[in-house]
Every structure is written in C-alpha cells, then in structure tokens.
Amino acid sequence: MDLVVGHREGYPVSFLLYPIATLDVALQRGIGITTNSRVIKQPYIIELDDFRVYLQGHLRDHHFPEASNEDFINFRADSAYNSYTAYRLEGHNVVVARELAMRVLLNGYYVSRWDVIMQVIEEDLWLRINPEDREKWAQLFLGLRFINVILDEYEVNGDFLERGTYPSLEARLLGEMTEILNGYGL
Question: Model-level pTM?
C-alpha cells in the first residue's frame, strides 16, 4: 500500500499522509495524487460483513419480520459467504460467485407483503393516495386482518412472484383497498 501526500479542501495547508489501496478510494476521498504515487488497483474482496449488512438493509427496507432477528441474519450471511467461497474455489469468477451467493442470501426473501401492498398503491391507487401518505396507508392495510387473509390465501412470501398469481391477487387487493378508501372519502 502506497502513501499519498495531498491536500484536502477545508484543512490547513500541510502535508497529510493517506494510505491508499486503490485509485477509486483516492478519487472518492478527493485526495490529490502526485505523479510519483503508485496506486495499485486491487479487486474488491467480499467479506462476511458485506452479506450481513446487505441482508439487514434488504429485510428492513422491505419490512420482513426477520429484520430484527440477528440469529437469522447471521446464519444467512454465513451461508452466503460459505457459498461464495465454495464457488470461488470451484473456479467461478468473482461476479458469478457473488451472484450465486446472493441467491443463497435472499432465497425466499425477494418480495414481501409490504412490497405487494406498495405495488398496488403505487400502480393502481396513485391518484387517490398522496405520495407522502403511501407508507402510512400501506402500514394500515397490512394491519388489517382481512387483507392478511387474502395475502395468506395467495401464500404471499418472499418468492411469491415466481408463481404467476399476482394479477388475481392484485385485483382482489385493489377491490378491498378501494372500498376502504371510499369509506374514508378518498
């Protein structure tokens, strides 16, 4: 790893030493690179924490109940990392090994009930529900027993879209959600 001498905006003019591993990092940090600097571009090394952080964000953003289950997240991240390592040892390139490991990480957790409700709101009810209120309405709809009965009937879970029953589910949800909105005068 080379040391780069440079100046950053907002700091007093002095010589600052920055250890830089790649040209990309130097450019992101806004560090000037002298002509004497030798910066070696290295491939990004995937770590176990990369899978853990990605899964935590995915589960949180898509409102999966497992978002706060650390044991589940750790197990899935470990499994994905082990898969990635095995695929690399089999000779797969980094991109292919990472894609296959991501399939292990997200298996059964691609689409949530939240995603299905938000999809109906954004595609079919976008004129009736203001953008700033959509998440509140989605939360309300997901809290209703009869909406969850419909979602259960269609077995909405993380791999739901693979089954091709979305159009009929969408029609049923839209009917129920429209009746609720009509009751609120929207």
Answer: 0.66
